[in-house]
Amino acid sequence: MIGICIPAHDEEDLVEACLHSVLTAAAHPDLGGEAVKVVVVLDSCTDGTPALVAKWPVVALSVDAHNVGRARAAGARHLLHHQARWLAFTDADTCVAPDWLAAQLSLGADVVCGTVEVDSWAAHGLQAQAARSRFEASYQDREGHRHVHGANLALSASCYLQAGGFDARECGEDQALVDRLEALGAHIAWTARPRVLTSGRPFSRVEHGFAGAIRLHPAQALR
After folding, report:
1. How do residues 97-145 score in pLDDT, each as one tens digit?
2. Run of H or E residues at 14
3. CA-CA distance, 11 to 6, in Å (whole number)?
4. Phi-psi label, residue 218: left if phi above 0, alpha if psi -120 to 50, beta otherwise
5. With 0-12 CB in 10 A as exposed, 13-18 as middle and 19+ as buried, what is 32?
6. What is the 3-state secondary structure (H, E, C) of 137-174?
7. What string of DSSP letters covers 18-86?
């Protein structure tokens, strides 16, 4: 069985598009009909996210962690308990490609670190073009990149357990896990083949997450 884990904190505007995309990926013919279980970890939600998730054929786990590392770990524990052999992680503000899972598995790696594509820069307003240019000047959306994103990360269950899973971090839990896997000698595919489209919003639920990385800060806007 393949497991998909999606942490969600107050994502009522975006979560259904995410779920539609992952369920489409779960039905890809190259998976040969293998079962796919999707777990949405509802972390301290106060909006309509839980009610929306309840409409979909997925498992909803409620936690009060205010911590994405703990949320991902909770989802992974559930999937491992149900004998998942492969764990794929994305975010509730992200849509994955129809062949997302198939592309991961086709690589024959222990760990798959994928890239992300920003869906729109419009929310950055007058700074949109400058923020986009700054991001694209340094980001490597290609094979052999060295980026780590919880929105596009997958690995075998055995490697996840060997590395000790996700730390209880508010940010950087994905990088810390991959660092440990690399130290253990895991075969890591640094690839742009499994595609995801993630929100380009400049502010998110995590202070130092992807939104902060792509946001143009005041000092940069003056350059």
Report:
1. 999 999 999 999 999 999 999 876 767 767 778 877 787 788 999 999 9
2. none
3. 11
4. alpha
5. exposed
6. HHCCCCCCCCCCCHHHEEEEHHHHHHHCCCCCCCCCHH
7. HHHHHHHHHT-GGGTT--EEEEEEEES--SSHHHHHTTSSSEEEEE----HHHHHHHHHHHHHHTT-SE
